[in-house]
Amino acid sequence: MKFINILHITDLHFGINSDYDKASDQKDSALSLGFSEKFSNDWVDVFQESIMVNWINQGKKIDYICFTGDLLQAGKITSEERNKRMDEGFLFLVNLCTKIGIEKSQILIVPGNHDVDRQSEGLGLKTFEDLCTKYGIKNFATKNILEVKASDGIKILGVNSCIGATEKIKEFDKDYFLKQIESSSINDIIKGIKEGSDYEYQKDLDIPAIGDGQHSEIIKKISSTNIIDCSILLMHHNPIPTNCIEIRPYANLIDGGRFLNDLLKTNKKVFILHGHTHFDSCITSHLPQVEKNNFVSVIGGAALNAKGKASILEFIFSDDDIHLKTNVHQLSRDGAGFKVAPIYEISNILEALNYYISYGNLKTYKKYSFEDIKKALKYDESDEDLISSIMFLSPQVITITQNGNNDYKKWKFTRIR
Does the structure show a pLDDT above 70 at 39? Predict the structure, then answer.
């Protein structure tokens, strides 16, 4: 049994509470008013301490911090202010890494559209890259696909979905853009907006895309025999059209449909972790005509600044790197701190049925060792099948106390329902 635990953080938007941003991004700013101004040291400490208390100190670990873009809130700001905000974002990630006891090599990061300097033609991600170097973060995706070997047959990939971010939208697109707004359901939201305001159409908004080159390279890597069953892909933009029209018409990847279709054809399980929408979501798709139990699961992270949420994804694999199940836990604001709670799980239902066991003989709220469970259930098949079955019941039916040990025969198990 193997575990890969990912702390997924996205959309920090340092500087979102500035006067300009309150005018130009009302929705996010209104949501962030409950926070301390910007990210105070106290707030950062509370977030870090909550992970320690509710996860690390419970005998669990974080293998990777995966950040999916938008370190800062861009806008009409000076280069100095832009660099300062981005620097704060990198400091947040590096300090968090130190707090929970992992190496900088375990920080994986892809850029968001706010991380791109739109005033700097051809150098849009230079500051981002320079700060990665400054803080010793080597695993990032700008010009090249990020590739990290998490296990012999499991890889984490990262892609820059902002390749259109420094390409200017041509002026003649303005009429089309305005017609779309006129016919959309957000007409009430934009009512009263005047020419010359902060809401006026901007020609330099990004058009998110994967691009042909990156598309081909990712499909080739995932299809490779080096990936046995499962891969994890990091990107900023949602490859599925968002249902959140408030984040404006340029939110979706223009080549996302083709990309998802080709991922499904790889016959591998692919988990896409993204940000940008500021809402947590999960949509899992599969091709019914494909015999193998593969799927693509698109998992959106809520903005840590605006929504006060992050997530921990607990990937569970067999010893031969076959994906069994992913438990998704949410970190969310709870008074002055954060709480951690399981919210859903992702697995193939056919595989789950193969591992189903009747657990009625287990008493609720009694702690069991692995051997105790075998005796209580009168289980006489392989230990590996039994622990796989228990994992499918965790954490909704059976909770597991690992005490920092990877040997499941030393864990404690408690039936909670």
Answer: no
